[in-house]
Amino acid sequence: MTINTQYTKFRPQRYQTRVPIFWWVHKWAHLRFITRELTSVFVAIYAFVLLFQLWALNQGAETYALFLAWLRTPISIGLHMVALLFVIFHSITWFNLAPKALVLRLGTKRVPDAVLIVLNYLAWGVLSVVIAWIMLKA
Amino acid sequence: MQTTISLEIQRYRPEQESEPVYQSYEVPLRKDWVILDALNYIKDNLDGSLSYRWSCRMGVCGSCGMMANGTPVLTCATFLETYAPGPIRVEPLINFPVIRDLIIDMSEFITKLKQMKPWIVREEEQPLSDGEYLQTPDQLTEYKQYSMCINCMLCYAACPIVGLEPGFLGPAAIALAQRYNFDNRDQGKKQRTEILKEDNGIYECTFVGECSIVCPKSVDPAGAIQRYKVAAAAEWWKSLLLPWGNR
């Protein structure tokens, strides 16, 4: 079969756009998305601090005392403040998105999105109160 | 009162230019005109060389998707008045190679769709004498939303991941996979998951969520992908905790 060259004459000359490095600055939705991605680094750092605390506890009283001393330094307090801010930001945005990933049914009816979001916040509140109670009692 | 509006249209004629250029056209600003009407007006009255795809004019065929001021839209469903006083910048859908003017090359997208086996897969077909596969209205509701997709590719233009990782199977293809996965007559979920759990599958998605915002049919591909991730994670835990169970 012969191919009509009229049809294929310009075929290799597709124009391909490239995504610029700062593609995310032009649109609020993209900026919000990148903010979530970047701030998750602090959430990870906070998780590492917790793991490190467990490790220090396992090493004995002396190491743990050193760790506690580090927790009182301005750097540590600053890091914790920033991490707390971003963890709250991530919790709120994640709870609001939860119904997208979670489809629950009661019988044949789908549980409304608002109910799922409220349940997430309630669980968050209850767990926070329980942890605060344990901490303050100790 | 404003009687005309200006359209800045991206032109790319490979025999003439190596990079796209913009050309301005002045069209009547009519209350009942959508962008597609303006393009047809240009083609009929001002410049017959302008190339673009369209067919049904009623948001069903999915041919006329383009970028209007940087947002992917169906041009048959987007009124000129929304953009008054203008100008309106009309470009081909981004994240796709451009063939000519406003026409993109969708072959890659079609290949991705086909990989999803978008048909009812049966392990064994039941004999004709058994009659049709039955389905209740509730079972239909399970997947109906995902079956509304018209393959207009607006979600691919809205997704930054598609632009950054061209191999990503993309929102519409995964939503279509879910359309069949949630169909009680289908038994092909395992085959689709095999492909979707790979590098170019569901885990490429970082949940920007723009695909669901631009979707003209409210298919919610972002939701479909997240549901897939949750299901895949549950499967993984199941296989870890119950290794002797039925995989």
Précis, in short:
By secondary structure, chain A is mostly helical. Chain A has 5 helices and 2 strands, in the order H-H-H-H-E-E-H.
Characterization of this structure:
The complex is a heterodimer of chains A (138) and B (247). By secondary structure, chain A is mostly helical. Chain A has two domains: 25-87, 3 helical TM bundles of succinate and fumarate reductases; 102-138, no CATH class. Chain A has helices spanning 5-8, 28-59, 61-71, 74-101, 113-137, and strands spanning 105-106, 109-110. The longest helix of chain A is centred in the N-terminal third of the chain and has 32 residues, at 28-59. The mean pLDDT of chain A is 87. Chain B has 247 residues and is an alpha+beta fold. Chain B contains nine helices and seven strands. In chain B, a hairpin with a 2-residue loop joins β3 and β4. The mean pLDDT of chain B is 93. Chains A and B meet through α2 and α4 of A and β6, α5 and α9 of B.
CATH architectural type of the largest domain in chain A: Up-down Bundle
Backbone structural class of chain B: alpha+beta
Domain unit count of chain A: 2
- Count of discrete alpha- or pi-helical segments spanning 4 or more residues of chain A: 5
Radius of gyration of chain A: 25 Å
CATH C-level category of the largest domain in chain B: Mainly Alpha
| Residue share in β-strands of chain A | under 5%
**Which series of helices and strands of chain B comes N to C?**
EEHEEEEEHHHHHHHH
Output mean pLDDT of chain A: 87
The CATH topology of the largest domain in chain A is given as 3 helical TM bundles of succinate and fumarate reductases
Helical fraction of chain A: over 70%
Shape of chain A: flat
